[in-house]
Amino acid sequence: MGRTIKILSVDDHQMTALGYKYILEDAEFDDFDVRVDVATGYEEGQKKIEFSARSVRYDIILLDISLFPPEAKDPRTGEDLGKLARQLVPESSIVFMSSFSDSFRINSICQAVDPEGYMVKSEIDELSLIEMVKTVTTAPPYYTHLALVAARKNIAQDYKIDKLDRTLLYELSIGTKTKDMRARIPVSMATIDNRKRALKILFGVKEKNDLALIEEARNRGFI
């Protein structure tokens, strides 16, 4: 047996992360074996990534997008953790493992993090996990079918969701009223209104209320 591929799996569902671990550690690879560490949330994942930056880096980091249940009221996502990993351990490959297959969300992640792979969870099985590791370690990227279709789909809108938009969506999702936004977001009310209007158009809920915007943003994995 040759070298060992070190993988970090970050998923707020422990059984999911452990499932990846057991499958990959039991799999037979031609010239390497695999060892998988598990983190069950953003903070634990951050600590392991920061430690790897000071010691032995991970070859692959597997990231779920939703790392908190809705009631946790924490806006940080796997995308944020991916951005952090790019800064701290740029040599590590990043693969997103998510239930979200929306083309806008996947393209947003590709632009923000430039991952070495994206797997839609409904398409993940033992064979695809093994193939992902082989591909990412030799000739990335690796996409499952739905992720590849979404990544290749042309996005009609030029609008890009930025940190301000995501903060606005998060505040709406926790019940912050529009009139109280300025205390939390340092921009004018006109900017807040314009951003919210643009997001409704982008998500196809132009004529609907804020609840429809929140639900659509949640369905697409932005909150």
From TrEMBL:
<dbReference type="InterPro" id="IPR001789">
    <property type="entry name" value="Sig_transdc_resp-reg_receiver"/>
</dbReference>
<keyword id="KW-0597">Phosphoprotein</keyword>
<feature type="modified residue" description="4-aspartylphosphate">
    <location>
        <position position="64"/>
    </location>
</feature>
<dbReference type="GO" id="GO:0000160">
    <property type="term" value="P:phosphorelay signal transduction system"/>
</dbReference>
<protein>
    <submittedName>
        <fullName>Response regulator transcription factor</fullName>
    </submittedName>
</protein>
<feature type="domain" description="Response regulatory">
    <location>
        <begin position="6"/>
        <end position="136"/>
    </location>
</feature>
<dbReference type="InterPro" id="IPR011006">
    <property type="entry name" value="CheY-like_superfamily"/>
</dbReference>
